[in-house]
């Protein structure tokens, strides 16, 4: 787990060491253990390392294999690296390290661009092939690891976060397509766009091959399907297979490390089930970590009532942290400064503050992200299913943050460029290999929306403290299995039926049967008091007015009655606007 950056120039200029160092400086938190850079004329790499596998200097990056003429920078973990290492040795390769990094180099040399089909893990990497005079870039199937880039006729520049790229000469103007999506899909801007025009991101399960002359070829190497096989499994067989795949997913994430692993324990079904499965496969001395906040408007700010039960049952080595609302406000700027893109979810700040504490004890954690998307855990799925109308209408009514008409009132005329969210949804919903409307919803959520919402914010907030988060529910084999399952089976018993069946006998009934909750941060949901003053100051500031995104007439209305502007997912629309402007002030203006 690391931070990577670099540049390939097409204009015969030498890559600047100073500019490379500027990008690396903005990613130190992602890899605090060591740093390295490499420049060879028109190509240069930078790297910040978080040492997880092969802690020796042999795994140092950028990794150079002189015999093969390859140089690599890599962020992530290859879970099957040990099996690949053994296979590649049998093919005649000699290794100088025990790292998954070197496995990628040898795999690329052996299989070429098809190497990604053999890698099981979360990854973003670049291989410079000197013989071919080309750069090969890849992102994992589920898009867990980030990869941002800027492409011009002069150079291809890339980094693990936007903050690093904006130290270069990039267009920092607002992307009108991304703006409409940002304010409609609660912070999700699907790849390849970001909120600023000069920065793009690679789609999940995608590779880029860039020649030294600037020719770019993009390929998608994985297409999950949402169709039932003719000889489908019975419900019992689906649940049994889910148990097997989830246990395998946990096991390979526990095994692929040379440092201890813990669990971010919320007290919900997902993270509690991870603890149970770790115990089931034979691990003891499990480390768990929980966080809680102050209650507001009768909404609980912590789930300690349930996480304590898991700690007691499995006798974990547990630490829990209570955070006051005053601390949330004073630390908010730090969290936003570590967001590669504006992230409106309340729990982004919670993960930031929790990760700070966890990183003092451990380097790797398992987290339950993805379970709700993969196994239908959210309340809006049932509402969508019951809704009438077109696919777009059924989805939009229960998911999109604000009607398009309100969006037009929210932003100034300059950004009235069309309903890009609706256009994007139409494209996703008309893809082949889905049986029903709900299949389309789950596939879109699992392969696109989850990438730029919970997955991205967990990666950003944990890596802000040099902490690696692994997500067993996002295992691509488990996802493929879940997408082949009938939506009705997943949606039984208010959702996540297969997981609830697996949990019976493993977890307390009170945890299994409890009402679905969310990582709580009430102060950013029920905006009042000093939080309201804080958001008002941002949105009426001279910077915000001069930027010219938002209509100040609408801003005044929403500040006056923020409780009247809640999203279908129970989020604050005021916070959405304030967060975007705050992120721009911290990460783009400064």
From TrEMBL:
Keywords: Amino-acid biosynthesis, Asparagine biosynthesis, ATP-binding, Glutamine amidotransferase, Ligase, Nucleotide-binding. One of its GO terms (cellular component) is cytosol. L-glutamine binds at residue 100. GO terms for molecular function: asparagine synthase (glutamine-hydrolyzing) activity; ATP binding. The keyword Protein biosynthesis does not apply. Gene3D superfamilies: Glutamine Phosphoribosylpyrophosphate, subunit 1, domain 1, HUPs. GO terms for biological process: asparagine biosynthetic process. Pathway: Amino-acid biosynthesis; L-asparagine biosynthesis; L-asparagine from L-aspartate (L-Gln route): step 1/1. The keyword Endoplasmic reticulum does not apply. It catalyses: L-aspartate + L-glutamine + ATP + H2O = L-asparagine + L-glutamate + AMP + diphosphate + H(+). Residues 2-213 form the Glutamine amidotransferase type-2 domain. It is an enzyme of class 6 (ligase). Its EC number is 6.3.5.4. The active site is at residue 2. InterPro entries: Asn_synth_AEB, Asn_synthase, ASN_synthetase/amidase, AsnB_N, Asparagine_synth, GATase_2_dom, Ntn_hydrolases_N, Rossmann-like_a/b/a_fold. SUPFAM superfamilies: Adenine nucleotide alpha hydrolases-like, N-terminal nucleophile aminohydrolases (Ntn hydrolases). ATP binds at residues 264, 291, 367-368. PANTHER family: ASPARAGINE SYNTHETASE (PTHR43284:SF1), ASPARAGINE SYNTHETASE (GLUTAMINE-HYDROLYZING) (PTHR43284). Belongs to the asparagine synthetase family. This is asparagine synthase (glutamine-hydrolyzing).
């Amino acid at each position: 787990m690391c931070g990577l950056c670099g540049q390939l120039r097409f204009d015969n200029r030498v890559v600047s060491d100073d500019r490379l160092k500027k990008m690396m400086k903005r990613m130190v938190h992602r890899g605090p253990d060591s740093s390295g850079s490499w420049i060879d004329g028109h190509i240069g790499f930078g790297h910040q390392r978080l040492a997880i596998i092969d802690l020796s200097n042999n795994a140092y990056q950028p990794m150079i294999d002189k015999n093969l003429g390859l140089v690599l920078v890599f962020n992530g973990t290859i879970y099957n690296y040990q099996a690949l290492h053994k296979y590649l040795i049998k093919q005649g390769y000699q290794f100088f390290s025990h790292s998954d990094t070197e496995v990628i180099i040898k795999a690329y040399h052996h299989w070429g661009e098809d190497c990604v089909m053999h890698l099981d893990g979360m990854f973003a990497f670049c291989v410079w092939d000197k013989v071919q005079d080309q750069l090969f870039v890849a992102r994992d199937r589920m898009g867990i690891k980030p990869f941002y880039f800027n492409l011009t006729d002069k150079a291809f520049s890339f980094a693990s976060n936007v903050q690093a790229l904006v130290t270069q000469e990039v267009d920092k103007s607002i992307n009108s397509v991304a703006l409409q999506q940002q304010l409609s899909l609660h912070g999700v801007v699907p790849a390849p766009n970001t909120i600023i025009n000069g920065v793009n991101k690679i789609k999940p399960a995608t590779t880029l091959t860039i020649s030294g002359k600037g020719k770019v070829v993009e390929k998608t190497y994985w297409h999950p399907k949402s169709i039932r096989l003719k000889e489908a499994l019975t419900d019992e067989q689906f649940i049994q297979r889910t148990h097997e795949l989830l246990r395998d997913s946990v096991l390979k994430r526990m095994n692929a490390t040379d440092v201890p692993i813990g669990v971010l324990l919320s007290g919900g079904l997902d993270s509690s089930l991870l603890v149970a499965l770790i115990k089931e496969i034979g691990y003891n001395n499990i480390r768990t970590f929980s966080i809680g906040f102050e209650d507001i408007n009768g909404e609980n700010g912590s789930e300690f009532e349930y996480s304590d039960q898991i700690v007691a049952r499995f006798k974990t080595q547990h630490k829990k942290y209570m955070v006051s609302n005053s601390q949330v406000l004073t630390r908010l700027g730090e969290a936003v400064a570590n967001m590669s893109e504006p992230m409106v979810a309340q729990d982004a700040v919670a993960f930031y503050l929790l990760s700070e504490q966890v990183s003092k004890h451990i380097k790797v954690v398992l987290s339950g992200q993805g379970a709700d998307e993969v196994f239908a855990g959210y309340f809006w799925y049932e509402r969508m299913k019951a809704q009438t109308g077109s696919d777009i209408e059924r989805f939009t009514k229960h998911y999109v943050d604000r009607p398009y008409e309100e969006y037009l009132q929210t932003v100034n005329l300059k950004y009235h460029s069309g309903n890009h969210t609706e256009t994007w949804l139409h494209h996703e919903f008309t893809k082949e290999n889905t049986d029903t409307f709900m299949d389309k919803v789950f596939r879109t959520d699992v392969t696109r929306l989850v990438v730029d919402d919970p997955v991205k914010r967990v990666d950003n907030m944990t890596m802000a403290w040099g902490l690696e988060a692994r997500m067993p529910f996002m295992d691509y084999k488990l996802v493929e299995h879940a997408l082949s399952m009938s939506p009705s089976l997943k949606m039984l018993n208010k959702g996540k039926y297969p997981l609830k069946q697996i949990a019976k006998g493993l977890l307390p009934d009170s945890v299994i049967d409890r009402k679905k909750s969310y990582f709580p941060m009430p102060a950013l949901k029920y905006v009042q008091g000093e939080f309201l003053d804080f958001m008002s100051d941002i949105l009426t500031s001279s910077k915000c007015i001069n930027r010219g995104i938002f209509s100040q007439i609408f801003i005044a209305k929403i500040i006056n009655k923020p409780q009247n502007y809640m999203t279908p997912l129970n989020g604050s629309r005021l916070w959405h606007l304030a967060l975007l402007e705050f992120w721009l002030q911290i990460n783009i203006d400064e």
